[in-house]
Design a protein that fits this description.
three-stranded antiparallel sheet, alpha+beta, single chain
């Protein structure tokens, strides 16, 4: 299966990182024709910031 789209969710602040799952859930609910084929989770940080990135690889379901 080939993906046709990529959606990137990223957060650096603690509260944003805590809410990231809900943000993704809302996006998926507002895009019911999306089929997630794969995902990647990345974390990076330096002395001040901690960044969490979740990448969804998806395709849209064919329209009837």
């Amino acid at each position: 299966m080939q993906f046709t789209g990529v959606k990137v969710f990223s957060a650096t602040k603690a509260k944003e990182r805590e809410d990231l799952g809900e943000v993704i859930t809302r996006w998926l609910q507002s895009n019911p024709d999306v089929e997630v084929l794969d995902r990647d989770v990345r974390q990076s940080s330096d002395n001040e910031f901690h960044c969490l990135t979740i990448i969804l690889f998806y395709r849209r379901a064919p329209r009837a």
